[in-house]
Request: fold
Amino acid sequence: YTAALRNWQSVSRLGGFFSGVVNLSQIGLNTYPVLGAKWTAKGLTGLADGGAAAAAELKAAGLDLGLFMPFTEAGSLANALGADTAKAAWKEGRYFQAAQRVSLFVFNSAEKANRLTTAWGAYNRALEGTARTAADKTAAAQAAKEIVERTQFRYHLDNMPELLRGPVGALLGQFKSFIINEVEFIASLSPKEAVRFGSAVAAMGGMGALLNTAGPDLVNNASLIWSSEKLNEKLAAKSANAPTEAGRAAWRTLAYGLPGTVGINLSDHVGIGNVADITRGLFGPTAKDAQAFVTFVRDASLDFSATGMVSDATKLALWNASGPSAIKRA
Reply:
């Protein structure tokens, strides 16, 4: 029962296109602060042929990235624990389970890209100035492994608190290991890395993302003391109401970063979120899912009894409760 709930939560939170897009932000948020622009760019070159050549060289040097991908098929933790692949489920006629695994394709692809980019960049950085002997490559692969684990994390059971390893703890604490790891990562940043991290958050989510980060969000909320609007609400109003299109574009870029230039708002999806995001649903998504379901049933029943039909707002609530919310337009 708990395994089925965890499976549903994984698909509802991670399935679909946008979850993969958000997952790719880890390259900017975690890889770039540690490796810098030069070696992050080098890491991206490893994706040129789908990552096959880079992954093969890393594996030959002693770093098998397949062992560190929690949701992918071959060599993954999920597979090692007996989780089915889409192909296996389809062959056995379990088409619904196969569809669930297919829905995670974009997220899994992003996860592979994150880890390969980080490993390839770190590996080549460690090899710079060496004779690139077999021993050099082995040492570089070990250095790359450490950076991958630092920036993209390890989701193996031996790296999880004992409380989260059992069926009940795993259900209630699902996805909380990412929050814990990301907080630890941010705390470990050197001053130089912290500057890069802040610039990455600003580039991908603008001032909206910075004000939605734990710490600055307290200032954002406190701004209601001297104003009728929060700082992020003022930015949103400016980006929508500036008198010229050029002015609106400039305010969108300031408010939402580079995605804002094309009218996309990722500010709620970049980074670990604000204090409320971190503390809300302390036991993973389970309590929030239950609350959302109860609220939906209550509102839908009132909606139907009053009008005789389900409104668009209720349909939207059902969509948001059962699948990942779409990225907002800026």
